[in-house]
Amino acid sequence: MANNAQILRDQSLLSSEEIKLREALLVSENERLELNSLVIEGESGAVDLLSDLDIMATNLGVELSIDQLNVIETNETGFDELQIQISVTGNDQTVFNMIRILENLPYSSQVARVDLERNSESQLSRADIMVKLSITENGQ
After folding, report:
1. How remote is the C-alpha of 13 from its chain's centroid?
2. What class does CATH assign to 40-136?
3. CA distance linking residue 93 with residue 57, whole number of Å
4. Residue 127: is it exposed, middle or buried by C-beta count within 10 angstroms (0-12/13-18/19+)?
């Protein structure tokens, strides 16, 4: 009989903890959604981003090429890091505008490196840019 009473107390305690957990999940839902919106969602999210960058580059009148694309596994944040090496060619103003777009991507991102070069003969500028973004694995 004592075992049954203990089992009932344990079940009651578990039910109480489950209710607290559900409440915590509900309270934190908006924060979790906001955090998730800052992260590229897997391979399909990366493809969408690259497509969007291509469209923006075309609209600005710059030539954009993706020179390198790497996913680096990290254990520190729980997210992997997507590293994109981008080359942009155009006039001074359009290249600068494309750099600004990359600096202000709506994700957890960082422009890690910018190398600028200006061709005095063609009056074109070229920027080699390394952008780092947080990315989830597919299905996370």
Report:
1. 40
2. alpha beta
3. 13
4. buried
**Strand pairing category for 124-136 and 109-119:** antiparallel
**Half-sphere exposure in the Cβ direction for 47 (13 Å, CA):** 4
**What is the helix (H) or strand (E) element at residue 97, kind and residue range?**
helix 92-103
Span 108-131, pLDDT tens digits: 889 999 999 999 898 899 999 999
Q: What's residue 96's pLDDT? A: 95
**Count of Cβ atoms closer than 10 Å to residue 26 Cβ:** 9
> What are the sequence ranges of the domains in the chain?
2-34, 40-136
User: β-strands 80-90, 124-136: how paired?
Assistant: antiparallel
Radius of gyration, alpha carbons of the chain: 24
> Do 39 and 79 meet the contact criterion of CB atoms below 8 Å apart?
yes
Closest Cα to residue 45, out of 15, 75, 19, 80?
Answer: 80
- Stated pTM of the model: 0.71
